[in-house]
Design goal:
- The protein has helices at residues 3-6, 18-21, 71-82, 93-104, 132-150; strands at residues 14-17, 22-27, 33-37, 49-55, 59-66, 116-121.
- With 176 residues, the protein is an alpha+beta fold.
- A hairpin with a 5-residue loop joins strand 2 (22-27) and strand 3.
- The longest helix is centred in the last third of the chain and has 19 residues, at 132-150.
- The chain starts with a helix and ends in a 26-residue tail after the last helix.
Length: 176
């Protein structure tokens, strides 16, 4: 039995502006980021799924998997990585390279408002007909397909020699 024959594919994608999900991001006195979720965030962002981070100047720069019980923590860590202010996240090589370019081009915390999260919700783990490991593989296979198509700069599989949906402005395009 193939899982895709009995388990529905990703749901229709939804897009949300960064501050539809997060209420604020600021740097505390100790230099660490303070990130809060919007209490009235959309219901889809509370489900499991695949998410893609997008900025109008930078394009699609990350694809990830989110389980309903950990995605907000993961998104918080992605914010830390993007702003190169990691307190609870390990800074990964590709995220660091992207964060350095983001900062060098004049982008920073104020530009989070321009980020869009495209989210593909999926059925919950309890609705999945297989075991936990099969569910993880199912999600991983979907993520791998999307990453293979768009080649986003922050994913570990990023290949700078291939065409990418990520752009690299050398200066801030939408200057305030």
């Amino acid at each position: 039995m193939k899982i895709n024959e009995v388990f529905p594919p990703l749901g229709k994608s939804v897009r949300y502006n960064f501050f539809d999900i997060f209420s604020f991001v600021r740097v505390k006195e100790n230099g660490k980021l303070k990130i809060s979720l919007n209490r009235s965030r959309p219901a889809e962002t509370k489900r499991s799924g695949i998410y893609v981070w997008y900025h109008p100047d930078w394009g699609y720069f990350y694809v990830g998997i989110a389980a309903a019980d950990n995605f907000t923590e993961r998104w918080n860590k992605h914010i830390q990585k993007l702003l190169d202010n990691c307190s609870s996240a390990k800074q990964m090589k590709n995220w660091k390279a992207f964060a350095d370019k983001f900062k060098a081009a004049g982008y920073g915390i104020d530009d989070l408002k321009d980020i869009t999260l495209r989210f593909f919700p999926i059925a919950s783990r309890t609705e999945f007909p297989g075991e936990e490991e099969e569910f993880k593989k199912y999600l991983s296979d979907i993520e791998t397909r999307i990453v293979g198509i768009i080649n986003p700069a922050c994913n570990k599989e990023y290949n700078p020699e291939r065409r990418s949906a990520t752009r690299f402005p050398t200066a801030k395009i939408n200057a305030d």
